[in-house]
């Protein structure tokens, strides 16, 4: 583990031991070394970036390699391509669509979800999970990355039970909070729920239990919360219900993973980093970038001055030379020289060849991470890394990868939306049945919207109905789109008839 990562939060051993004591086998044990490695690459940490070297005299010195954080850049690009504030969850009933849209807007979900996707694409896994404020009877969504996610039950269809671990603060002290989203009671029934901690539950918890833990269906999901101090002792914080029956028969969390097969650990419920197979390209990018910057540094002008040009002053019994110029290794003293001379030395820059190597490394990184060869480039005239401003639909490789990742995300987004609506109904919210849900992505980022709208307009009446055009481009329900398309069509026919004098 790198020194910097010591400050990051990782699941403590006492939390793992608690879960093992409940009979769970933890897939995190096999995946954690990989997750730690990917986390270091995202932060540009580790032996590749900080190492020791020797000079010609055998003296050891510390070296830090410069970085543009290519691994993090890749993940941020995927996050911006896939999610933004214009992404919507669409339900069969427009009222349900409006409700979940307002909820996501008021809680700033999509902006935070993009950050979750960035981390999930870097570490292989992320998650959204419900968090319930029992005092206010409000539902919120918490965001987690792979460091805090422990799948408990899974099959080929996905994760069905999961634990989430994070740091919380109680009375000024840090505690480890474990929340298990379990189907059925798993031994944590409403009768025994309030004895999960080592202490008796608070009065507040008991009130919540009497008022809200009313269902006892084995099909419902329960949120079991256990808190620990830094020594691993269980706590019973005031206001925390040990067990909450959500009343939802479907998962109260959503697992976020890129559409990349996990080849590191077979049959693991965790995903794999989007740059896992491109680590060599990540190294190549930073190697060439460091070489480019070093080339500029070592090629700056040097000035050599004869001994006689340096002023001298007395220091005790010795006569010493007064330093000349800044101590940045640009001015050098020609020892034992008696000539009154100044000699300049300016090495020729090789930035063109270095820039070309940097560009090739960027292109290789983009290709291996699913963007294609032309996505990343280096602008020599301005000296910065740029990405493609327009991603045309003829870039079939990139478009296919975007669709694959969108499909992988859709289940997690609609799943957490359905869970929010289900628990909110239990708190008295009037929400119609959502029916079939889908995610409407903002494809304007990856295609020329104006050109596609124009193309679809040409197809109206040929391969596309007018109402289909309105559904696609105006987001209207089918019934509304059909009615408005009919009205517009009637009006068009009448105007043509009036113009021709037939009416």
Structure description:
With 503 residues, the protein is an alpha+beta fold. Among the domains are: 300-346, no CATH class; 448-503, no CATH class. It contains 12 helices and 20 strands. The chain has helices spanning 13-21, 28-42, 70-82, 94-106, 109-123, 203-212, 279-298, 351-368, 396-426, 449-459, 466-474, 478-500, and strands at 50-54, 60-64, 88-91, 126-133, 138-145, 149-155, 158-170, 173-183, 221-228, 234-235, 243-245, 253-256, 302-306, 312-315, 318-321, 331-334, 342-345, 376-379, 384-387, 437-440. Strands 6, 7, 8, 9, 10 and 11 form a 6-stranded antiparallel beta sheet that branches. Helix 11 (466-474) crosses helix 12. The longest helix has 31 residues, at 396-426. The protein is globular and about 95 Å long. Mean pLDDT is 82; it is low at 1-6, 190-216 and 491-503.
Which features does this protein show?
single chain; 503 residues; alpha+beta; 6-stranded antiparallel sheet; 3-stranded antiparallel sheet; 12 helices; globular; disordered C terminus
How would you sum up the global shape?
globular
Q: What's the helix count?
A: 12
Tell me the major beta sheet.
Answer: 6 strands, antiparallel
Global structural class: alpha+beta
Ends apart, CA distance between termini: 83 Å
Radius of gyration: 31 Å
Short description:
The chain is 37% helix and 22% strand.
Topology, element by element:
Layout: H1 13-21, H2 28-42, E1 50-54, E2 60-64, H3 70-82, E3 88-91, H4 94-106, H5 109-123, E4 126-133, E5 138-145, E6 149-155, E7 158-170, E8 173-183, H6 203-212, E9 221-228, E10 234-235, E11 243-245, E12 253-256, H7 279-298, E13 302-306, E14 312-315, E15 318-321, E16 331-334, E17 342-345, H8 351-368, E18 376-379, E19 384-387, H9 396-426, E20 437-440, H10 449-459, H11 466-474, H12 478-500
Parallel strand pairs: 13-16
Antiparallel strand pairs: 1-2, 3-20, 4-5, 4-12, 6-7, 7-8, 8-9, 9-10, 9-11, 13-17, 14-15, 18-19
Helix pairs in contact: 3-5, 7-8, 11-12
């Amino acid at each position: 583990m790198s020194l910097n990562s010591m400050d990051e939060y990782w699941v403590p051993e006492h939390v793992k031991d608690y879960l093992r004591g409940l009979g769970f086998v933890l897939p995190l044990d096999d995946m954690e070394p990989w997750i730690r490695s990917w986390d270091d690459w995202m932060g540009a940490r580790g032996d590749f970036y900080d190492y020791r070297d020797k000079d010609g005299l055998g003296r050891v010195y510390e070296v830090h390699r410069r970085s543009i954080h290519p691994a993090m850049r890749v993940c941020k690009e995927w996050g911006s391509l896939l999610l933004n504030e214009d992404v919507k969850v669409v339900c069969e009933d427009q009222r349900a669509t409006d409700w979940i849209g307002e909820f996501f807007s008021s809680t700033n979900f999509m902006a935070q979800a993009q950050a979750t996707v960035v981390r999930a694409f870097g570490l292989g896994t992320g998650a959204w999970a419900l968090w319930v404020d029992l005092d206010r009877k409000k539902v919120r969504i918490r965001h987690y990355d792979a460091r805090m996610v422990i799948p408990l039950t899974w099959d080929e269809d996905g994760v069905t039970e999961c634990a989430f671990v994070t740091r919380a603060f109680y009375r000024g002290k840090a505690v480890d909070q474990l929340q298990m989203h379990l189907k059925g009671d798993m031994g944590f029934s409403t009768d025994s729920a309030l004895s999960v901690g080592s202490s008796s539950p608070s009065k507040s918890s008991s009130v919540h239990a009497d008022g809200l833990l009313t269902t006892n269906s084995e099909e419902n999901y329960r949120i079991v919360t256990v808190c620990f101090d830094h020594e691993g002792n269980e706590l019973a914080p005031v206001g925390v219900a040990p067990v909450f029956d959500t009343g939802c028969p479907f998962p109260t969390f959503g697992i976020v993973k890129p559409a990349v097969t996990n080849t590191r650990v077979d049959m693991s419920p965790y995903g794999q980093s989007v740059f896992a197979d491109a680590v060599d390209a990540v190294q190549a990018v930073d190697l060439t970038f460091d070489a480019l910057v070093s080339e500029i540094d070592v090629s700056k002008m040097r000035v050599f001055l004869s001994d006689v040009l340096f002023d001298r002053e007395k220091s005790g019994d010795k006569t010493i030379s007064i330093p000349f110029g800044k101590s940045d290794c640009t001015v050098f003293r020609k020892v034992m020289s008696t000539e009154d001379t100044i000699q300049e030395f300016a090495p020729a820059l090789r930035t063109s060849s270095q820039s070309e190597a940097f560009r090739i490394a960027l292109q290789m990184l983009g290709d291996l991470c699913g963007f294609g060869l032309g996505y990343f480039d280096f602008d020599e005239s301005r000296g910065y890394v740029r990405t493609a401003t327009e991603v045309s639909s003829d870039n079939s490789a990139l478009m296919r990868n975007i669709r694959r990742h969108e499909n992988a995300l859709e289940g997690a987004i609609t799943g957490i939306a359905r869970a929010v609506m289900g628990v909110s109904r239990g708190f008295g919210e009037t929400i119609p049945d959502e029916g079939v849900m889908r995610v409407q992505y903002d494809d304007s980022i990856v295609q020329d919207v104006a050109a596609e709208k124009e193309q679809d307009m040409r197809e109206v009446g040929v391969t596309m109905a007018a109402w289909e055009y309105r559904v696609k481009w105006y987001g209207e329900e089918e019934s509304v789109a059909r009615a408005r398309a009919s009205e517009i069509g009637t009006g068009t026919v009448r105007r043509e008839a009036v113009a021709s004098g037939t009416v």
